[in-house]
């Protein structure tokens, strides 16, 4: 009896192992095949049936992609935009989260509600037209301001930080009060240092979100110098009238690798914050 | 700032509120205003037209097609994603050697943008060099230009959407499965429940609040945020079969400069969001009740 159970368990384990290998291969296949093709020379790209691996590593596609579209400049734009959106969101989010978690004040419920409603008003999609017209009035079209400032505050971050601050015991703030610390000293010296991992996770989620924005940068930048890499890839597809997929895939890799590396490096932190922001927020 | 200052919490909230008032509440109100105006014939001024933009929208049979396409695309992608995610999540909570590595790979599409997801899938399905196109040709004899042929373009867009959305759902199911107490599953095993029964009769009902949350989140993602996938892969074609509500809104606003109609369309989308919000809260109340 015992041996048959363990035999069955062993069989299940092997079956699960094989299934997971297949599943992860299928899910990674688009990225792996694109990576492989980005290193092929044009002749290899068009062999049929398609080749899985390049015969040798060719950097030609990357050179061509960088020449066709100024992806270097766009990478810098994406980095600037993603960095400042992330930074802005963390500042506004921690301050608002602190207000909601540690203070009682008139209008708390109302302001909470007003913030909450914005979760259901996706600015970067549904309101693109009025937002675009407002940017025009501000004279912000084709500027970093338009790419960054509208996204520097969000309810998600405020609620995530609020939830987190509420888990920190009141004794700490009581002790700070007794020691004569001001509320901002408590915030900077005690609360934030205790929230490092939560802040790190939130920073990652926000960075990936900002790096991957597409519709808004598409309409708010006309000048190629202001475009982000996401738009660069679209331009590459449009420019490559002969559809040299090797070049397009090289461009795709350039746009994709930064977020993928960040994700691979600190996946645990990422997943933890995503779940706590979703399930409790 | 001292602890007793009544101003402190308001000062803390000011940065957030300045941003959301200017960049969310103002544009939202502006949408309402725009939806009651039309550009004059020469395009030099706006004329108040009352509900005419809405009337035009809802007397146009094409708009119903767009709504239908949006819902069909969203519902089918969401159901398939949730189903696959629930199945795979069972494997990822077992203590199998290499689980951490599998999770790393399977979660990866989360970090990839919808536009890049669209590019990757266009490439896999392209007639001349696409690997997936080749596979379909060999296995099922399907030889078609996926992105420009009628039923296939819709399927292609769905494939990319599901691939992109799957990790999000997996992450939440894994978190949920890990919070189910082992004792519950052990006692069901003693009662003779098999793997399949445990999965659907015990785990699935226990995780229904997560399924509900994922359904709402996925639905809004596909309705509103899938613009990048569609813009890269099909541009709404062929024959409008992949034109969703957000894509039509974009075309009317930025390709045809029809601001009044685009604004009216945003209001329709707000209304849908409003309904989703109400459903979400009703659902959350319910799930809180039986816990």
Any descriptors?
heterodimer; A: 281 residues; mainly alpha; globular; B: 291 residues; two-stranded antiparallel ribbon; 2% strand
Structural write-up:
- The complex is a heterodimer of chains A (281) and B (291).
- By secondary structure, chain A is mostly helical.
- Chain A contains 15 helices and no strands.
- In chain A, α3 crosses α14, α4 (71-102) runs antiparallel to α13 and α11 crosses α15.
- Chain A is globular.
- The two termini of chain A are 48 Å apart.
- The model of chain A has no long low-confidence stretch (mean pLDDT 89).
- Chain B has 291 residues and is an all-alpha fold.
- Chain B is built from 13 helices and 2 strands, in the order αββαααααααααααα.
- Chain B has a two-stranded antiparallel ribbon with strand order 1-2.
- In chain B, α5 runs parallel beside α11.
- The longest helix of chain B is centred in the N-terminal third of the chain and has 32 residues, at 61-92.
- Chain B is globular.
- At the A-B interface, α1, α4, α5, α6 and α12 of A face α1, α3, α4, α5 and α6 of B.
SSE string of chain A: HHHHHHHHHHHHHHH
User: Oligomeric status of the shown chains?
Assistant: heterodimer
**Whole-angstrom Rg of chain B:** 24 Å
Percent range for β-strand residues of chain B: under 5%
Largest interface: pair, residues per side:
A-B, 91 and 96 residues
Q: Which regions of chain A contain 5 or more consecutive residues with pLDDT less than 50?
A: none
Structural class of the secondary elements of chain A? mainly alpha
Portion of residues in helices of chain A? over 70%
What is the mean pLDDT of chain A?
A: 89
The CA-CA distance between the termini of chain B, in Å, is 42 Å
Unreliable spans of chain B? none
- Could you give the distance between the termini of chain A? 48 Å
Overall geometry of chain B comes to globular
Strand content of chain A: under 5%
The backbone outline of chain A, from C-alpha atoms, is: globular
Q: Spell out the helices and strands of chain B N to C.
A: HEEHHHHHHHHHHHH
> What is the count of DSSP helices of chain B, taking H or I runs of 4+ residues?
13
Main sheet summary of chain A: none
Residue share in helix of chain B: over 70%
Overall number of strands of chain A: 0
